[in-house]
Amino acid sequence: MNREEVIERLKKELALPLFNGKLEDKTYSEAEYQKIKQDLQRYFEDYVRNVEN
Fold it and tell me: What pLDDT, in 10s, does the model give residues 7-44?
């Protein structure tokens, strides 16, 4: 996957239609994609949810 494909997939899978992350312009493997997705989810849980509570 290239950078644009990764961003589009994250938008769909995480229901973030306005997401525009800054990613390196390279080819990403499925494992790299899963790591990025996991990191975004962890960031949301650690920082965004803590503000809500």
Answer: 999 999 999 999 998 999 999 999 999 999 999 999 98
> 1-23 b/e with 16+ CB inside 10 Å = b?
eeeeebbeebeeeeeeeeeeeee
Q: What is the CA radius of gyration of the chain?
A: 12
H, E, C per residue of 1-53:
CCHHHHHHHHHHHCCCCCCCCCCCCCCCCHHHHHHHHHHHHHHHHHHHHHHHC
Residue type at position 31: A
pTM strictly above 0.90: no
